[in-house]
Amino acid sequence: MNLSRLIYFLLGASNRIRLPTPSVLPIAGAVVGLYSGLAAGIFSNLIGVMSGITFSAAELAAALKPQRLRTLMESLSSARWHLEYALVGVPLALGALLLARIIEPGGPRDEVKRRLRLLALLTLGGLSLYYPLVGLAAINAVFGHAHNLPAALPHLPWWLVLLAPTLGGLAVGRLLRDRPETHGHGLPEVVRAVKSGANVVPADRGLLKLIASAITIGSGGSAGREGPIVYGGAAFASSVGRVLGFSRRELSILLACGAGAGISASFNAPIAGAVFAMEIILREFELRVFSPIILASVAGTLVSRGVLDEAPMLNRVNYELVSGAEVFAYAALGIGCGLLAFAFVKMLHGVEHFFQGRGGGRLSPWLGKKPLPVRAALGGLCTGVLVFLSPTVWGSGHDFINLAAAGQLPFIFLVTACVLKLLATSITIGSGGSGGTFFPAAVIGAMAGGAFGTLVHYFFPLATGPSGAYAIVGMGGAVAALTRGPLTGMMMLYELSGSHDIILPLMVTCTIASALCHYLIERTSTKVVSDEDLLTGTQVRTLMTQVAAVPAGTPLRALTDQLLTSEVGTLPVLDTLGNLYGTVQVEQLRDVWRDESMYPLLVASDLARKLPALAPDTDLAHALQMMDQEDVDALPVAPVLGLAPCGLLTRSSVRRFLFAQHTRSNGEHAVAPTEVTH
């Protein structure tokens, strides 16, 4: 009897469970971080496979020798399987599935059942991907797909150095030929999605970008890993958030979770990933965004440590600030990093315009007429030629960062690598290749910092540290300047270097570099009317749609017919006195339209939501602010003195208006695909 009462009590309690969005968002953030870490592992292993095809095609027979097979078994046994993930995740997911099955359907409980089921299935799916990826990483390590680039590249035949990037560019161009929205390095698209409020990054584009970027980098194209991972993580977050029914604000936080977890997984730097998500994607530091973003970064890092190399990107270098006067040298380095980042951005735009036929002379128009695969292949060929001048051009080039940090690269090599890496990355991405700019910017900054440190230490040996310290700080300065995110540059290099003493030079260099690059870009960019000016200078009457309001007593069946045939799926509702009351949306019919017994009982006023009405002369900025406060996508517009019909202003109409204005003034996208702008 007591057991029956307990079971009855538990069943009753399960039907009273609520999953409000504030409690679901951190869990969803952790799940998104899990998949961002998996995406980083998949991406890295794809690059390894492509690199292995390039470097080890002639050694496949040797790979099957018994000694190599024994090494494979040892690698698999020593891999970081982390079985505790399954021991914790599987029972939790199965428990959530069981609970979702026990809860009775109907009303708000359907939303609880759906969210529990989706989160549980995503957890099981993540675990099912994790362990095969660990095995693939072990296989890649044994069969030579993870190369020591500085040692392996000199042994590559000259014809393969030219052929591999060319074929890689040809393949990527063919893959992306019909998907121009996937070009570039991915980060601006995520920033634009969050800034516009759309928060939609299609998942299929994210997967396509990962594959294309893996081909580009693995075949020798000069690009980085982080952009595709950021884009892929945001794409997955966008899909999950929309399925879970999150609001626009919550979707933007979830997109930031995916992007930040991607950075955390790529650099093995969870703090830097969280700061990146808040500083660059959301551009805010509020308590409500902390928990989902931090959980996402932690989950992404934990997963990536299993499917990627757990060793830090930077070898630990002993560092100390030799004298207070050395701060002036780091300030000068910040100026240099800011100028380099500005040149990088301009070069990216210039090369992109040149390959699209918008440059001067005869060659640019000729290139513009060629299909994307041909342009990308020519860009790959140019990159292959530059490899003969500097090996840092090949791939992401981050293998040379540790050599610069240890002071093992000569001055001429550092200067040449800095210039050619900047040029090669611009050609690879601008010609149609796919990849990020974080890693190349870090390499450019390390080379520039190492060269600068060599000069400074030569002239002031007693008052300055070794060149390696300047190489590390130069990395942070270049990343901070390119993204205009000083905190991201500081925390990333502080976390990677593991040195507390380096934080002061990082603060000086990153701040100056970021401010200078931002100033130069704002000063030289084409002046266009900002979104704020457009919104404050445009009245609601300009964009509102005139619709006939429905009386409060409209029966449910007639109301359903009008809603389903309306253009925007929303209708204004009048109260019993004939005054504007609020709106009714087609989504509100979800819980009642199948129940025929409810049709005679309900009228429009039963479903309507009371909302403030906009005056026709209200500016769009105030209207959007009211939409955010009410968490709706449409607001009613009151008639003028009762002489005009009611109207509706929708968020989508405002978004189309802004896009049309920017397209008319710029002739192109508001955010260029090769620049991070805010």
From TrEMBL:
**Compartments in which it is found:** Membrane
GO CC terms in record: chloride channel complex
Recorded GO MF terms: chloride channel activity
Family annotation (SUPFAM superfamilies): CBS-domain pair, Clc chloride channel
Name the InterPro entries on file. CBS_dom, CBS_dom_sf, Cl-channel_core, ClC, ClC-type_chloride_channel
Entry keywords, A to Z: CBS domain, Chloride, Chloride channel, Ion channel, Ion transport, Membrane, Transmembrane, Transmembrane helix, Transport
List residues traversing the bilayer.
21-40, 85-103, 118-144, 156-176, 253-277, 289-308, 328-351, 372-394, 400-424, 436-460, 466-482, 502-521
User: Which PROSITE patterns does the protein's record reference?
Assistant: CBS
**Tree of life domain:** Bacteria
Pfam families of this UniProt entry?
CBS, Voltage_CLC
Start and end residues of each CBS domain: 607-664
CDD domains, per database record? Voltage_gated_ClC
State the annotated membrane topology for this chain. Answer: Multi-pass membrane protein
Protein name as catalogued: Chloride channel protein
